[in-house]
Write a structure and sequence with these properties.
Blueprint lengths: L12 E3 H8 L3 H10 L5 E3 L2 E5 H11 L7
Antiparallel strand pairs: 1-3, 2-3
Helix pairs in contact: 1-2
């Protein structure tokens, strides 16, 4: 098992609504990210669950820093 992977029983999954709250975007934006493959998720019945670490990774990779001149 890779160092960055945890056993599934230790993974925290968030609902689309929870992800939207964390990212301060609409639920539709989260659905678009999931369907486009930018944000990994699993399907549980008719809904999606997103690993909390995936949200943190997405935000870290998408961060736009301001460089000083």
């Amino acid at each position: 098992m890779a160092a960055d992977q945890r056993p599934l029983n230790e993974v925290v999954f968030l609902t689309v609504a929870e992800v939207a709250t964390v990212m301060r975007v609409s639920k539709m934006t989260v659905y678009r990210l999931v369907h486009s493959g930018h944000l990994p998720a699993i399907r549980v019945g008719r809904s999606f669950r997103v690993p909390e670490q995936a949200v943190q990774d997405y935000l870290r990779e998408s961060f736009v820093g301001v460089e000083s001149a």
